[in-house]
Design brief:
Helices cover about 45% and strands about 25% of the residues. The protein is of the alpha+beta class. It has two domains: about 120 residues, Immunoglobulins (Immunoglobulin-like, Sandwich); about 100 residues. Strands 1, 2, 3, 4, 5, 6, 7, 8 and 9 form a nine-stranded mixed β-sheet that branches.
Length: about 220
């Protein structure tokens, strides 16, 4: 019997694998008639799936959405080869109370049967994982770039400080050398003064000061 219902999807029930390794999908059944339709869903592996609802009634020109979930965790390498069969038949108002008996005694010639296969679809979860890994990679790369920039600024500032300290050190060394030269010249003048006094030389103090001044000037010039 044909023409009572239509289903979506028509060929494959794509079970989407979730993080809990439980796969699920949705089957939509459309009533194409102006009469009430009863449906019943069977599967080749009933212990593997939970179908809600597995039977029911669809009002005229309406539809029903069926949630199908695996009862056990599914691994990515597993394959779903189960088949589902949707049975449909018109129903009278007085048959609505007991659907189990309705399908038990229903003549097969009044039943439309539609079959659909199942398959595992893991593309969505893989794409989600890839997106998470990509986001994490971007965050890590950004953090690394910021750290490198910060370190570069620190290194630049440290280099400038080192160069400034080196310049100060050179100035200090230069001043210390000038001071040392001055101390040597002063020591030389004092030695000359002592020599003059010791030998009874008649140099006047003015002459000694002139000689000392000349020595200081010459020392300063040659020191530069």
């Amino acid at each position: 019997m044909q023409g009572l219902i239509d289903i979506e999807p028509k060929q494959y029930l794509d079970f989407i694998l979730h993080e809990s390794l439980i796969a699920s999908t949705t089957l939509n059944i459309f009533n194409l008639t102006p009469n009430s339709i009863s449906f019943k869903i069977k599967t080749t592996t009933p212990n593997m799936f939970q179908v809600k609802p597995s039977m029911g009634i669809i009002q005229p020109n309406s539809q029903a959405s069926i949630d199908i979930t695996t009862t056990l965790p599914i691994k990515e390498e597993n394959k779903l080869n189960s088949k589902f069969q949707i049975n449909a038949s018109t129903i009278e108002q007085n048959d609505e109370q007991d659907l189990a008996n309705f399908w038990k005694y229903k003549d097969a010639s009044f039943i439309q049967q539609v079959q659909v296969k199942s398959r595992l679809k893991i593309q969505e979860i893989k794409q989600e994982i890839i997106q998470q890994e990509l986001q994490q990679s971007v965050i890590s790369e950004t953090h690394e770039n910021v750290s490198q920039m910060y370190q570069s600024v620190i290194d630049s500032q440290s280099k400038e400080k080192d160069e400034e300290i080196q310049r100060y050190q050179e100035q200090i060394d230069s001043l210390q050398k000038e001071l040392s030269d001055y101390q040597l010249m002063l020591k030389s003048v004092k030695q000359q003064e002592v020599a003059v006094k010791h030998h009874g030389n008649k140099f006047e103090l003015k002459q000694v000061l002139i000689i000392a001044a000349i020595s200081l000037i010459l020392g300063f010039i040659f020191g530069k």
